[in-house]
Specification:
Order of helices and strands: EEEEEEH
Helix content: under 10%
Distance between the termini: 23 Å
Strand order of the largest sheet: 4-3-2-1-6-5
Structural class: mainly beta
CATH superfamily: Photosynthetic Reaction Center, subunit H, domain 2
Strand content: 35-45%
Largest sheet: 6 strands, mixed
Radius of gyration: 12 Å
CATH architecture: Alpha-Beta Complex
CATH class: Alpha Beta
Number of strands: 6
CATH topology: Photosynthetic Reaction Center, Chain H, domain 2
Number of domains: 1
Number of helices: 1
């Protein structure tokens, strides 16, 4: 996804519409999110599918996306796939 299409304040949702959080910004290859509980989390940009105005949609279902959320924007080991969950 083109980083320039990501709007601060946009809602991030999983396929089916379940809310994951609100976009705070982009940090490197990560999306900074404010989660519904107020915590900040980071999601690899590679997990995003599309942007439609004030909404972003992820490629993966809600449970898979929440397993990818990080406390800090730290890329995986060299050669790892940021979308694959372990």
């Amino acid at each position: 996804m083109d980083k320039s299409r990501i709007q601060t304040g946009a809602q991030l949702r999983a396929p089916g519409g379940r809310e994951i959080g609100q976009v705070q910004g982009v940090e490197g290859d990560f999306l900074a999110l404010r989660q519904p509980d107020g915590a900040t989390a980071y999601l690899p940009l590679s997990a995003l599918a599309e942007s439609e105005g004030p909404h972003l949609t992820t490629l993966l279902p809600f449970d898979a996306v929440t397993s990818l959320l990080q406390e800090r924007p730290e890329p995986g080991e060299s050669g790892s796939n940021a979308v694959a969950s372990s």
